[in-house]
């Protein structure tokens, strides 16, 4: 006589079911829409079956798990990883990537400063009425008027160049 298996404690299917629901809701997909996407990747499944997976613990076969992975563009391992573990893994990635991002930001700040200095120095020689600068100011002002804060970076660059230009003028006049 066969002995029954011990109870399972990993609860991977319930983790996967919760993740399926979360991804479906976040993507604003109905059961029908998700069913169609599953079929498009080669795994026909009824909308009611997806609902049962999410709500009543219907078993998920490997083909379905792979199809959910493809539809959501998330590796299976990530789909079945508990949220607490995902958060810890993300923290590890962030801690590893943070110094690189800081380096890139510092480098970009230096490059930006050099751009501002070159533009301001050019304007010292050629004047604020130079056609390139006048055209840039017109574009920056128009973008700010039309797009508001969405294009405030162009206007901010303009302001930085003008401020550095004024600083260079003061230095040249001996008011440094």
What can you see in these coordinates?
With 176 residues, this protein is an all-alpha fold. Helix content is 76%, strand content 0%. It is built from eight helices and no strands. The protein has helices at residues 12-26, 31-40, 47-56, 62-72, 76-79, 83-126, 131-147, 152-173. The protein is elongated and about 100 Å long. It starts with 11 loop residues before the first helix and ends with a helix. The model has no long low-confidence stretch (mean pLDDT 90).
Globally, the shape reads elongated
Q: Number of helix segments?
A: 8
Question: What is the radius of gyration computed over CA atoms, rounded to a whole number of angstroms?
Answer: 29 Å
Number of strands: 0
First-to-last CA distance: 95 Å
What composes the largest sheet?
none
Could you report the average pLDDT, rounded to the nearest whole number? 90
Helical proportion, percent range: over 70%
Helix/strand-derived category reads mainly alpha
Order of helices and strands: HHHHHHHH
Which stretches are low in confidence, meaning pLDDT under 50 for 5 or more residues running? none
Q: Hey, roughly how much beta strand do the residues contain?
A: under 5%
Produce a short descriptive summary.
The chain has 176 residues and is an all-alpha fold. It has helices at 12-26, 31-40, 47-56, 62-72, 76-79, 83-126, 131-147, 152-173. 76% of the residues lie in helices and 0% in strands.
SSE topology sketch:
Layout: H1 12-26, H2 31-40, H3 47-56, H4 62-72, H5 76-79, H6 83-126, H7 131-147, H8 152-173
Helix pairs in contact: 2-3, 6-8, 7-8
Describe this protein with a few key phrases:
mainly alpha, 8 helices, 176 residues, elongated, 0% strand
